[in-house]
Amino acid sequence: MAAKKKEGNSFTAALGGLSGGVDALFGGPAADEPYEIDVPLDDIEVLPQVRDDFESEDNTLLDLGHSLLKMQLQNIVLRVNDNPTGKPFVLIAGERRLRAARLVDKATLRARIVPLSSEEAEEAQFTENIHRKNLTQIEEARKVQRDLDALGSTDAVLAKYNKGAAWLSKLLGLLKLPEQASRLLKEGISADTEVIHQVRQIEEVSPEKAREVVEDLKAKRGKVNAREVVAKVKDDVRPSKAKQAAKKAHGKDSGGTVAAPKDRKHEEPSEGKVFAGAKPAVKAKQVKPVKQILADAYAQVYEGGIRPAAVLKVMDAEEAEAADAFLRERFEAGKQVKNLGRVVIEGLRTGAFAADGDGALALVAVLAGAEGGTQYSMLNILGAVK
């Protein structure tokens, strides 16, 4: 009896040792539940995917293949093929591991079989690739930031990567995103730096509009042109200067009524005001207006995360001279201020000061001058908005 009991225990133990339990022996798990099995690579059908880059300098397919021969840490993901003439399974995620295994003649891989339709599998595959791309972009941004810190020059970084300043600004901007722009990456909605950059600009003006456009992109993920969607919203909440100028030229405000000309007498230096006695900014031959120069510099420092010293280093000499003269005037005018609060309020009302852009730099310059005992420095003024 004892021997018989022992045999029974051994049989039970054998059943319990099966990865799928008793169900795996008698027909497998329920059709609506995921399960794991070893699958021959020849039984896996690979459909065209969003992803087309599989090699990596740090971990080649061959390196990954040799690693898989030792141990497979992560399952590939498959679904049962609903095409009776095809192979038994269709790949959802793990094509890189599949390719690597074939390179080293590994016959099987551990797989998680999930009950998804072809449409659900396509959506899951899209999201998985987006998340991978997001991670790659963040890692790239961190690496470029390390290069910038080490090289100390945007010129050197741009030369190393053969890219433009706009690319650098947008990439580094990924390292400090506001809430809604950050959701694009965290929730796998979009990894397009142009889309992220524009959502961030929308959020600066209207967090609610930014939330709405992010929700819209999430609901229509992969079905709409994200750039066109955010560009339209951005244009509504933050119209371009060209549109604003056209609107004024037609003499109408947003409500369609005739708009009275804006009183701009306080916007430039005038006697008795904070900029009394200030001379016009240097009118050197320049590519763009001084306010645009400062607005661009502000964007690179505040939005792009580029160090002020690096921004100044790559600035055109004539543009730097014009910007320096503009800020120095405000700094010197700040020294003469008697009622700082009134001056700040007046500047905000007239548009001479602002929360961002050239207006923010003008405000910082005046405040620095009003502090007293400090020497003028364009580098310090740029650094104050970081």
Task: Give the secondary structure arrangement, pairings included.
Elements: H1 2-16, H2 21-25, E1 35-40, E2 44-45, H3 61-70, E3 76-80, E4 89-93, H4 95-103, E5 108-113, H5 118-151, H6 154-161, H7 165-173, H8 179-186, H9 193-205, H10 207-219, H11 226-237, H12 241-249, H13 290-303, H14 308-314, H15 317-335, H16 340-350, H17 357-371, H18 378-383
Parallel strand pairs: 2-4, 3-5
Antiparallel strand pairs: 1-5, 3-4
Helix pairs in contact: 3-4, 5-7, 8-9, 8-10, 9-10, 9-11, 10-11, 13-15, 13-17, 15-17
Characterize the structure shown.
With 386 residues, the chain is of the alpha/beta class. It has three domains: 34-116, Conserved hypothetical protein from pyrococcus furiosus pfu- 392566-001, ParB domain, CATH 3.90.1530.10; 123-244, Arc Repressor Mutant, subunit A; 290-383, no CATH class. It is 56% helix and 6% strand. It contains 18 helices and five strands. A five-stranded mixed beta sheet has the order 1-5-3-4-2, with helices on both faces. Strand 3 and strand 4 (89-93) form a beta hairpin. Helix 5 (118-151) packs across helix 7. The longest helix has 34 residues, at 118-151. The relative contact order is 0.06. Mean pLDDT is 75; it is low at 1-30, 50-58, 252-262, 264-273 and 275-286.
